[in-house]
Amino acid sequence: MSDVTVISMFSDRFQLPVVISSHAKIRMVERDISDEILLEVIDFGDARYKDATHLWAFKEFPERHDNFLCAVLVLEDCVVVKTVMHHFEVL
């Protein structure tokens, strides 16, 4: 489990704890995305499912100038944040 950062976050949407991968945490720092903003994306953003356990959650923040923020998620016994993106476009 060295590839994840355990954070005291809980998703109300999924009723599961949230675990952030090391890769996602690095991207959050690079893109100035706080834990609070990430949780808002997870709980209140639109969702597009690849399958039953893999999805993209995305949300626009008008005060930011980098379009939608997106979290790539895997639903297991927790919500695993694999990465986060900015300038995300919905196709």
How does this structure look, described?
The protein is an alpha+beta fold and 91 residues long. It has a single domain (4-88), classed as YaeB-like fold. Helix content is 21%, strand content 47%. The longest helix is centred in the middle third of the chain and has 10 residues, at 35-44.
Mean pLDDT: 90
Largest sheet: 6 strands, mixed
Oligomer: single chain
Strand proportion: over 45%
* DSSP strand tally: 6
How many structural domains does the protein architecture include?
1
Helix-strand string:
EEHHEEEE
In short:
The protein is an alpha+beta fold and 91 residues long. It has two helices and six strands.
Key phrases:
2 helices, YaeB-like fold, alpha+beta, single chain, 21% helix, 91 residues, globular
How are the secondary structure elements laid out?
Elements: E1 4-11, E2 16-21, H1 22-30, H2 35-44, E3 46-49, E4 54-60, E5 68-75, E6 79-88
Parallel strand pairs: 2-6
Antiparallel strand pairs: 1-2, 3-4, 4-5, 5-6
